[in-house]
Amino acid sequence: MGDSKLLVSSSPHLKDSSTTSRIMLDVVIALIPAAAFGAYFFGARVLLVILATVLSCVISEYIATKALGKKPTIGDLSAVVTGLLLALNLPSTIPLWIAAVGGVVAIVIVKQLFGGIGQNFMNPAMAARVFILISWPMQMTAWVLPDQSDAITSATPLSMLKLGESTLPGYKELFIGNIAGCIGETSVLALLIGAAYLFYRRVITPEIPLTFIGTVALFTWIFGGDGLFRGDFLYHILSGGLILAAFFMATDYSTSPMTLKGKIIMGVGCGIITSIIRLYTNYPEGVSFAILLMNIMVPLIDRYTIPRSFGGEKKVA
Amino acid sequence: MALLRNIFKGGAAVPHRKNTAQKETLKMNVPEKVIIPMLQHIGAPCEPLVKKGDTVKVGQIIGNSDKFVSAPVHSSVSGTVTNIVPVLFPGGMQVTSVEITTDGMQEVHESVKPISYSSNKELLEAIRQSGLVGLGGAGFPTHVKLSPPPDKPVDTLIINAAECEPYITSDYREIIENSGNIIGGINILKELLKVKNVYIGIEDNKPEAIKVMTHLAEKIDDIKVIKLRSRYPQGAEKMLIYSITGRKVPPGKLPLDVGVIVMNVNSVSFVSEYIKTGMPLIKKRVTVDGSAVKNPSNVEILIGTPLKDVFDFCGGFNSEVHKVLMGGPMMGIAQHSLNLPVMKYTNALLAFGKEETETGEESPCIRCGRCVYACPMNLMPLYINLHALKENIDELEKYKPNDCIECGSCSYVCPAKRHLVQSIRLAKAQLRKAAAK
Fold first, then answer.
1. Is A117 within 8 Å of B376 when comparing Cβ atoms?
2. Does A17 contact B at CB distance below 8 Å?
């Protein structure tokens, strides 16, 4: 007695309007202020770098899915996000071909070869940035000051700190972003505008960013100065890639834990590793390595933070 | 009215769509024929007590079982039994059903007379004879629920009027139209269970219902109306008990284990009406709604009425029907035929056109964690989904799929449109199969 026209399916029969591509679009929108500030401070070449990485990522994604016999996934915009994030993590002087190679590494090796969206075990943009940093260290550290972007190379605030220079940029410069550094990492203001949008859209939750930044602040305050508890933690928060990484990279869905407890472990772990690298190694900046190291811990963290079911938390008397 | 004390984690902000809230219940005419299944509850099915050719009257018992966890079935009409056939239900079961061709007289059976009882035992037997099952949608026999074992003392009765599913307003209309019966039923049950506290839980999107019940409850000691946060699945038993009492029902346990009995507001109201009239459960208020229904309404329907007749009564369809649900859109069951009947526990019938039926194509999980956040039971639906699809039994056990209440919040919020609840049901079946080996 079936009426062949009626669809029979499992409940629920109602779903909200969120989609993967809408989430990715939100991330792109949230990164626009940082990209715009980057272009304003470092010049129009920034736009070419962004174009190079985004195009490289999208084309790589298309070819890789084709070659692997998978359904093309460029429509979900995740490759655009990877490309944009990669560009924001590069200096404005980077040769375009290196930027493009970074995009291929991010998408083909880190993302698609491990199963595509949701399956990568490292943040693709972060892994590609580290790949470039190790392969072409000269080009990756050719920083320029915003106002003299044609000629004079300069050190980033963190490397100045490391070298013990006395004339460091002030907090205001660091906050606005009028300093040397990667395209999208310098302006804390622009990044916070984007982060606020992501919170508003509920794309990210505050656990990882807050514990990450909080741990760096605590660690550098305790150990970053001439004696204990004398470090300039505000300087550490505002400089380098911490804000960009904490809000936009460490929160990457595929490579961050699922539960509240797991997210706190992730944030604290990233913060400790970042601080150790910044304070005790030859690298001025450590957020990339910190995130990648914590990325590979995520499956383990998830495994050990499976929550107890509702009502199973404690024995009922 | 007391303030809400405990907020359960997660859930989903589903739309309310209570389109029929202001519509007074319409009484539907007697259909040409009814199909009355012998299984309309959780438990043992009934055996038919009539045969083809018998004449039956309204309220006459036509099916019963000698098992404790079962509820008798009554004729909702007067007429002639024209067939006894197995009918395929959406769960995949064939259920013996009695088809009665009505005579339109609605002559009441002589067994129907006001109930008098002198002991709890007699009252429980009478409730069993009424055929009452949980009217909120679960269909658990009420006399079983009201017979807690002596080692599990009950101190709290909760009347569930949360009605957190979108569209459904049949509980709300009961409060507006029959509040006296609700209080009457509570008094009977309070006496039976000797409970200290009675709470009536209503979501805060129904201020009128809260007002009506608060006004009535004020005059009676020990009855409190609780204004609940409108958050799906507030009406789920475990969430409701936690919201009101702060007690958490452990996994695999019943409300009885924390000293609570939860009853749907319509079930309570029915008890009072039944004691007064002796008329067993033969009709039901059903919310008929959905984009494909011409005149969404609350309709009082005789149990056994084919769905097609119900939709015809509501003006028919205004577009092509693609999906028909019994129950709400979050937990309701998709029906494969309009010839299926209205059941005891039917609280809503929803019909949808093409647009609402298309909920997006499934795409890879992006590990956004929204399902983990939405799960009120603290589960990780994405991992159950992953391991169920691989039939990875050892891993599945770690993620406790059996604790899932199938509320649908995870699937509702999933941006990748993954069939999470469906795969959790699959996981439960896989674990059952593995345990049987």
1. no
2. no
What's the mean pLDDT in B200-215?
A: 96
Contact, A35 vs A46, CB < 8 A?
A: yes
Q: With pLDDT > 90 as the criterion, what percentage of chain B qualifies?
A: 93
Within B92-141, residue ranges assigned H as helices are: 120-129
A70 near B CB under 8 A:
no
How far apart are the CA of B15 and the nearest CA of chain A, in angstroms? 9
Residues from chain B contacting residue A306 (CB–CB below 8 Å)? 380, 398-399
* pLDDT class of A141 with cuts at 50, 70, 90: confident
Q: Are B338 and A7 an interchain contact pair (Cβ–Cβ within 8 Å)?
A: no
Given this model, what pLDDT does residue B41 score?
Answer: 95
Which amino acid makes up residue A276? I
Contacts B419 to A, Cβ<8 Å = 10
Strand order in the sheet with B283-289: B26-27, B297-302, B283-289, B348-352, B323-326, B333-334
In angstroms, what separates the C-alpha of B57 from chain A's closest C-alpha?
Answer: 27
Model confidence at A150, pLDDT cuts 50, 70, 90, reads low
Q: What letter would DSSP give residue B58?
A: B
Q: Is the pLDDT of residue B211 over 50?
A: yes
Identify the pLDDT of residue B204: 95
Average pLDDT score over residue span A159-174? 81
Q: Do A8 and B339 touch (CB under 8 A)?
A: no
Q: Give the nearest partner residue to A6 out of B249, B323, B360, using CB atoms.
A: B323
Report chain B's mean pLDDT, rounded to a whole number: 95
Interchain CB distance below 8 Å, A310 and B364:
no
> Tokens 């963190």 appear where?
A158
Which residues of chain B make contact with A14, given a CB cutoff of 8 A?
A: 14-15, 166, 329-330, 356, 359, 408, 412
The residue-averaged pLDDT of B176-193 equals: 96
Q: What are the boundaries of each domain within chain A? A: 20-303
Dist CA A220 CA A10 (whole Å): 53
Give the pLDDT score at A148.
54
Q: Which domains does chain B have, with CATH numbers?
A: 120-277 (3.40.50.11540), 370-436 (no CATH)
* Interval A262-279: pLDDT, tens: 999 999 999 999 999 999
Q: Which of A12, A117, A312 lies at the smallest CB-CB distance from B408?
A: A12
Q: Please give, rounded to a whole number of angstroms, the shortest distance from the CA of B66 to a CA of chain A.
A: 31
- Report the distance separating Cα A190 and Cα B168, nearest Å: 46
User: Does position B192 have pLDDT exceeding 90, yes or no?
Assistant: yes
What is the pLDDT at residue A284?
A: 86
Identify the pLDDT of residue B406.
Answer: 96
CB A260 within 8 A of CB A217: no
Beta carbons within 8 Å of A35's beta carbon, 6+ residues apart:
A46, A50, A84, A87, A88, A183, A184
Name the A residues in 19-38 with CB < 8 Å from any B CB: 19-20, 22-23
Mean pLDDT of A249-273: 96
Q: Identify the closest residue of chain B to A116 by CA–CA distance.
A: B364
Q: Please name the fold of domain A20-303.
A: Ammonium transporter fold (1.10.3430)
Mutate to test the interface with A, among B363, B418, B420, B425 (most CBs of A within 10 A): B363
The residue among A6, A1, A11 whose CA lies nearest residue B95 is: A1
DSSP state of A253: G
Considering chain B, what percentage of its residues have pLDDT values greater than 70? 99
Q: Do B330 and A14 touch (CB under 8 A)?
A: yes
pLDDT band at A1 (very low <50, low <70, confident <90, very high): very low
Give kind and range of the element (H or E) at residue A66.
Answer: helix A45-67
Contact B292, B312 (CB under 8 A): no
Burial class (CB in 10 A: 0-12, 13-18, 19+), B312: middle
